[in-house]
């Protein structure tokens, strides 16, 4: 699930119909998408300004206009798990095949592949401050990493573990009320802050760096529960 243009959208994984969820709990398919045969795969990211959704689907990575029910295929051969977008709205960061890859949203071209070695899944991009543009990665192996996509492959500081001791990391979602990032685990949800001067929610007019809104009944934890790395 994701929030786009102030509205909530979602779909069942691996073939679900894209739907709009109202505040009263009702939901209905996004007009026209079902007729065009578009179905969800896994991750999706929502633009809070224009209502577009960047999503993994049965037709590859797509750009959905939720208001008109139309879509554009960004890359027909890409079926990622986690999906997030750079603060400037130009680059999609996706978790696929045990790696993080970056793609041009305009052309669908692969920009870079980042082999983290930690089973990446959900991702969230930092906006503002000295870490602006860095990608927080929630890993299946119970760690959380920080990826600096501006550093070359082979640089030992390109990807660093910032927290460990968790169970299985999966979905992430920004809290648009305060700019923190929720990270799901098997038994609870943690909240991560990037510190003063930065946020996981961009300034007004800039796309929101998010991937998946957690489909859960409650947010269980408000403090990051992993043991932070000290080295």
Structure description:
The radius of gyration is 16 Å and the shape is globular. The chain contains no helices and 20 strands. It has one domain (2-228): TolB, C-terminal domain (Neuraminidase). Mean pLDDT is 83; it is low at 204-231. The N and C termini lie far apart (36 Å). The strands form 5 sheets. Strands 13-14-15-16-20 form a 5-stranded antiparallel sheet, with no helix packed on it. Strands 1-2-3-4 form a 4-stranded antiparallel sheet, with no helix packed on it. A 4-stranded antiparallel sheet has the order 5-6-7-8, with no helix packed on it. The protein is mainly β and 231 residues long. The protein has strands spanning 2-4, 7-10, 19-21, 27-29, 40-46, 52-57, 60-65, 70-75, 83-85, 91-96, 99-104, 110-114, 120-125, 135-139, 144-147, 159-164, 172-174, 181-184, 189-192, 227-228. Helix content is 0%, strand content 40%.
Which key terms come to mind for this protein?
231 residues, four-stranded antiparallel beta sheet, Neuraminidase, 0% helix, mainly beta
Average residue-wise pLDDT = 83
- Gyration radius, rounded: 16 Å
Task: Work out the helix count.
Answer: 0
State the CATH superfamily name: TolB, C-terminal domain
Overall 3D geometry? globular
Strand order of the largest sheet: 13-14-15-16-20
Q: What does the largest sheet look like?
A: 5 strands, antiparallel
> What oligomeric state do the depicted chains represent?
single chain
Structural class: mainly beta
| Distance linking N and C termini | 36 Å
Question: Share of helix among residues?
Answer: under 10%
Number of strands: 20
Domain module count = 1
- Please give the CATH architecture: 6 Propeller
Summarize the helix and strand pattern as letters: EEEEEEEEEEEEEEEEEEEE
């Amino acid at each position: 699930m994701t929030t786009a243009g102030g509205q909530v959208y979602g779909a069942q994984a691996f073939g679900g119909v894209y739907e709009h969820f109202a505040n009263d709990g009702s939901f209905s398919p996004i007009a026209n998408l079902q007729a065009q045969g578009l179905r969800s795969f896994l991750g999706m990211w929502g633009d809070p300004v224009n209502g577009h959704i960047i999503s993994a689907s049965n037709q590859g990575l797509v750009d959905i206009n939720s208001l008109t029910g139309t879509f554009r295929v960004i890359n027909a051969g890409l079926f990622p798990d986690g999906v997030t977008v750079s603060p400037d709205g130009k680059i999609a960061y996706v978790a696929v095949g045990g790696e993080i890859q970056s793609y041009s949203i305009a052309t669908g071209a692969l920009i870079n592949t980042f082999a983290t070695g930690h089973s990446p899944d959900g991702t969230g991009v930092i906006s503002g401050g000295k870490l602006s543009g860095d990608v927080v990665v929630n890993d299946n192996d119970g760690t959380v990493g920080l990826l600096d996509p501006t550093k070359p492959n082979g640089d030992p500081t390109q990807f660093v573990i910032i927290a460990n001791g968790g169970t299985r990391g999966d979905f992430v979602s920004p809290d648009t009320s305060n700019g923190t990032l929720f990270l799901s685990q098997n038994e609870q949800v943690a909240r991560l802050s990037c510190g003063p001067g930065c946020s996981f929610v961009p300034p007004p007019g800039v796309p929101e760096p998010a991937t998946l809104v957690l489909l859960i009944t409650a947010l269980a934890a408000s403090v990051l529960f992993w043991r932070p790395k000290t080295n």
